[in-house]
Amino acid sequence: MNKQTEDTFNRGILLESKAQFDKAKSVYEDILHHGADETVLEKVRSRLEDMDTLIAEKAIYRRVDENAKQVLTDIGINIIGNQTLMDILMEADAIDFENETALFIPLKRDYIDHCLEQVPREMAADPGMNTFGIGATPPFLKRTGNDELRPASREEYEKIAAAVAEQQDVVGMFSLPVACDKSISLFEVAHLMAKNYQAIKMITTNTMSDEQVTFFKDKEDWVDGTSLITSLTFMNNMVDPFLRSARTGNNLLLIDQTIAGVSGPGSPESLLTQNHAQVIFMMVLAQTVNPGVFCMHCGIPSVTETGGNLSYSSPHQTFINAAMARVNTWITHFPSAQTGGSTSLSELTPRALLDSELSRNSLRKYGVHIVRHAMGALGSLNYFSLEKFAEDCERERHSKKIFDAIPKDHGMIPLYFPEDDQTLAGIREIAEKGNPKSADHTLKNVDSFRNWEETITRAAKKKPYYPQLNDIVLDSLGGPQAA
User: Fold this and answer.
1) What gap in Å lies between CA 127 and CA 317, rounded to an integer?
2) What CA–CA distance (Å, rounded) separates 274 from 264?
């Protein structure tokens, strides 16, 4: 490959990394038109095979973003039972009182756009793409040789904070890893977390005093994890803490864990749309009370297993979070955080470690911003294990080394995200009936995630990406292949 052709091909790969697939396609077609040696042409043809698929996938994510705003304008959010929220939005002239078909309280589209324009797209302490961290605040600390289920004590938190500080080369975000008992307050936990850990940290402040909440203001390396909406309805116990954090000016991590078929619709596109809509509503409210306040999008769509529990061992959990990450990295450019790298298994076993490793590797290959819950969690975020954390870090260090050494000339991996042209109708039906389980839309999409997985697997049989590093898809095909 001559230098000029190599530079041109690399420009196409760079355009792909920026999700500019139309331009990348033109670059590759230009190389093909002018001719090159067969080695180059093989790479170019390989990339051209994916361009139309990636262009179509990006169009779906653009529709997700658009439809999420339409959820807020045409269906609305149920805040009628909270006068504080109603007063804030009425005073801002944000409510569309002329809309007679919305189910709940609809917002004006121009007001939504105005608020979202004010959300910062850059974060001062940005750890960069493919950052994996810990967190989730499981209720129980898993103790080796001890089956007692209880939160972590002060002494145990000191050990956890010290262990995380020692692993800063692979732990890019230190979120609150487990609940604490009465021997230590959350505010004291925050000081332990900050003692020797320099990168970005997250803690919840809803139980803290006003003075303690103010401590996190203007601290670039802290985000205040908060939430407000579930099932298109406000959570009454979170209204005051949410508004306090936003008005204080803390960096906000806006969390929404909509669950397919439980608190949200069942198809991948409709699940992303509702999840995204609820985070956008939180952004709008935050910008209303404090224009310009930093907001990180933490929409973490989730799936369940047969018994109804969250299923972090399911490949669907990884795929849907990779797709949510792309909505933000490709379309909105909001700083974002996902969930992944965990397991449904409650005991520290080789399979539990492998579940977590395969999920992290898959998310890395698809490309994400920040992933919480990626080390140490067990039982679909019900437990934190310091022993598993250490094992996860070793595996992550090894995976990162392999991935960093792989040539990145394979380009962007398609997710083959499935379309659902009934997304808005499905979300509206569920809102009207009050439960996804009784909605026709949910029943019609009961196999949608499985069908999506099969599409990804079929494609991987034809073209494995970065085969040197095992992931969920490659593992289902028998493990990594020779490069």
Assistant:
1) 23
2) 7
- As for how many domains the chain has, the answer is 1
Phi/psi for 104 (5° steps) reads -125, -140
pTM: 0.97
Q: Which amino acid is at 29?
A: E
Is residue 471 within 8 Å of residue 459, measured between CB atoms? no
3-state per-residue secondary structure call for 361-396: HHHHHHCCCEEECCCCEECCCCEEEHHHHHHHHHHH
Report which residue type is found at 46: S
Residue at token pair 């690399």? 10
Domain span at 45? 1-483
Pair of tokens at residue 89: 């939005």
Residue 358 dihedral angles phi and psi, to the nearest 5°: -65, -40
Closest CA to 173 of 276, 334, 298: 298
Q: With beta carbons less than 8 A apart as the criterion, state whether 76 and 280 touch.
A: no
Distance from the first to the final alpha carbon of the chain: 20
Average pLDDT, the chain: 96
Q: Tell me what pLDDT residue 481 has.
A: 54
* CATH assignment at residue 271: 3.20.20.480
